[in-house]
Amino acid sequence: MIIIDAMMVCLDLSDIDEKLVAFTRSICQRLPVKKVYFVHNIKTSELSEDFRETFGDIDLSKEVEANISDIVAEHFAGGCDHEVLVSEEPNTEVMMADLVKRYDVKLTLLGKRMSNKSTGSLGTKLLRILPCSILVFPETASFNIERVLTPIDFSDASVHALRLSKSLADELRLSLEIMHVYKLPTQYFPLISEEKAIKKAEEVVNGKFKELQKRHTEVAGVPYTLVRAAGKSTAERISLQLRKGKHDLLVLGLKGNNPIPSLSLGSVPTKIYNMDIDTPLWLVYSEEVIK
């Protein structure tokens, strides 16, 4: 069973906040979440002089907290135990990372607007620095989740994501599909037959799937799809498979084994995050990686 002791929801006072709060309620109604923290940071250094002259010594934190509380009261009815946290720190991502550690947050919900509305720079920073799993909710995404896609590369991180996806699918009665993107050494064509290369590559991958099913019998019955990269990146193929299969949730495992934080996220999750997709993206760290 998936149990979320503490969940953090990052709000930015934009029109996506209401959707995030409502989606959080949907999560709490379907999964055991013990407590939710609705969080916003006021970067006072970015307030203009005009603002200061107009509003003077107004207690901005109190006003923001009241605004968020109103949204929560309207869209979180029937949710779980929760708290609104508003701070005034110069660095938002560091502040939120501290909250994750302080409250032992297991999952952070992060909204994402389309690229023509936002650069997504803060979101990218949060993905790289927060020591917990992250659920990215695009502004165009649906609350209704029935079909889950989990790409794997047979690493420990992707297997962890797969096992979590299977638990989620069993608990919520969702449809789960596994996919693997493989590439061929095209520099050897036409020295070897492309048809034979494809056949051999798929034989190797099918062998890996059989070994995986032996080690983790709970995923033995989950259907999987082999997709050839064929000139496209892994992220592009995953995006195409999302649309083709009409999936409602994408789950990716994060390795996090690089000591340099800016390099630990991985190229595939970074590229997918930067795409304009309509599907919620669950980026999963294992407890071992977080420790």
From TrEMBL:
<feature type="domain" description="UspA">
    <location>
        <begin position="145"/>
        <end position="272"/>
    </location>
</feature>
<dbReference type="Pfam" id="PF00582">
    <property type="entry name" value="Usp"/>
</dbReference>
<dbReference type="InterPro" id="IPR014729">
    <property type="entry name" value="Rossmann-like_a/b/a_fold"/>
</dbReference>
<comment type="similarity">
    <text>Belongs to the universal stress protein A family.</text>
</comment>
<protein>
    <submittedName>
        <fullName>Nucleotide-binding universal stress protein, UspA family</fullName>
    </submittedName>
</protein>
<dbReference type="InterPro" id="IPR006016">
    <property type="entry name" value="UspA"/>
</dbReference>
